[in-house]
Every structure is written in C-alpha cells, then in structure tokens.
Design goal:
The chain is of the alpha/beta class. The protein is built from seven helices and six strands. β2, α2 and β3 form a beta-alpha-beta unit. The longest helix is centred in the middle third of the chain and has 17 residues.
C-alpha cells in the first residue's frame, strides 16, 4: 500500500502573528531549521522513494535536509502550496480578526472565499488532486514525503477522514509535524495526525 508522509514546514517568524500565504521571502528561522534537521533524522531510515514540496521557500527549506540525506531531488508541486489568501496575505492576525469575513472563516469555512484568492473548497480540491497525482507515480508499498502548509494539510486530512469542511479547524497541524496516510484500492487509512518528530523518533 503506498504511503504519504505529509509534513508541515518548520517554524518561521510569521507563524501565529502574520498571514504569510504565498508571499515570497518567508524563510525558516533558527528553530525551524532545527526542526527541518530533526525531520530528516527522523525519516532518514524510512524507504522514501520521492520527496515533493510546495514551491514556497519555507516548505522547500524543510524538505532540503531530508533530500540531502536520501540523495533525492525535491520535486516542486504547485498543488501542495499554501492557500491563496489573496488580499489577506501580509496582514497580522490581529488585523484580520477585525474583518467581517473573519467570523465567516471561523464559523462557516465551507463558504469562505478569500478576497482576490481562492475558496477553501477550491483549495481542498487542489490539494487532494495533488495527492492523487503523487499516488499515480507510486508502486505498491512505496513511500513519498510531501512538504506543505498547515491549512493545506488540514484540508487534505479532512477530505480523507470524510470530515465535512465545516469542521476542518478542529484538526491541529503543528510546525514540522508528520501525518501518515496509507492507501490501497479498497480503503484509505489516516494512521497518524500531527505527530511531532520527538514522538516519532525511533520508528513509526
């Protein structure tokens, strides 16, 4: 059964303070680089055959240490990118929380259309299509590592858990966390959600 290891990028100075979205130039900070190295150390002995990443720098930087250890290229996949938050990008969380649409995002996310960006429904479809594309290139029992972003991963997990998008906020996806999805023709198993490297270290 093919397996996807889905990893959120490491910490950066915008996390919890400002909405980075798809803005360029958002890089891992010192803690984020430590997390990326720990991800690589945690996963280096897994039989990973391919590494995919969002095109954003913070995701690629998190993928890089594992790619180096495994001598694999990082394949850039647009479908794994962060949500297109449109005009919300670059604003602080405090600024956004005062907008009328903020309440819609919190209470009815399935109806949310970001001004100048995409809807969460569109974003979920994009991310799920990316996983399907990755899976078409995997043989039985092959493992791929996918580096992405918090909301994108939550939307992906909600889909495979058959959780209504309305409740996707209930899923936690911390920086540098790992989630594990196992696929076969008959069923999909979400085996791990939001597991830290410290929890996974020593074997999965």
């Amino acid at each position: 059964m093919p397996v996807l290891l889905v990893i959120r990028h490491g910490l950066n100075d915008w996390v919890g303070k400002r909405l980075a979205g798809r803005l360029p130039g958002v890089h891992l900070n010192a803690e984020g680089k430590r997390q990326a190295n720990l991800v690589a150390e945690t996963l280096k002995d897994q039989a990973i055959c391919a590494i995919f990443s969002s095109p954003l720098e913070r995701a690629q930087e998190t993928a890089a240490p594992l790619a180096e250890k495994l001598n694999l290229p990082v394949q850039i996949m647009e479908g794994l990118s962060e949500i297109n938050f449109g005009t919300w990008q670059g604003n602080t969380i405090q600024q956004l929380s005062r907008r009328s649409q903020w309440k819609i995002l919190q209470t009815h996310p399935e109806t949310m259309q970001f001004p100048g960006g995409e809807s969460l429904v569109e974003a979920q479809e994009r991310v799920v299509n990316a996983t399907r594309e990755i899976l078409t290139g995997l043989d039985e029992d092959e493992i791929a590592a996918c580096f992405s972003h918090s909301d994108a991963i939550r939307l992906m997990l909600a889909h495979y858990l058959q959780m209504p998008l309305h409740y996707f906020h209930r899923l936690a996806v911390s920086t540098a966390s790992i989630s594990v999805l196992r696929f076969n023709a008959d069923q999909i198993k979400v085996e791990v959600i939001n597991r830290s490297c410290e929890q996974l270290f020593g074997g999965m």
